[in-house]
Write the structure tokens for this entry.
Amino acid sequence: MIRTARLELLPLRVEHAEEMAVVLADPALHTFIGGAPSTVDRLRIRYRHLVAGSPDPAITWLNWVISLDGRLTGTVQATLGPGPTAEVAWLVGTAWQGRGIAKEAARGLVEWLGRQSIRTVVAHIHPDHHASIAVAEAAGLVATDSWQDGERQFSYTY
């Protein structure tokens, strides 16, 4: 678990699927990331896969749900490796946006990664996703000249 001033980042469990299906039900959440909201059953399958871990021994998947006052509000994730690099992402349900939750969770995650063996944190963000860019910047990541699949890379080096 990772704690911040207001939040607990709890390791993802398959049992979170039911509550998270409601949190992530707004189709607008998929504007920049693609796809559509998942059913509880599809989230259970996805979460089971994520909890099982990466099939590549050089890659580690870390996933947390964001809890505010005991209610789940979103997720953060980090893909570690190969090497001392982590790629991070975040997603906060529409009903919880505008409260600084994503910024606080992303900052907490980046700080936690810095206490591990990670030396560089990256995120890839659609150039029109201004809220996510603000989250990255609040977590200390800065825009780079690198792009991947139409998304700009933001990076932080410890």
About this structure: The radius of gyration is 15 Å. The chain has one domain: 2-157. Residues 2-157 form a domain with the Aminopeptidase fold (CATH 3.40.630.30).
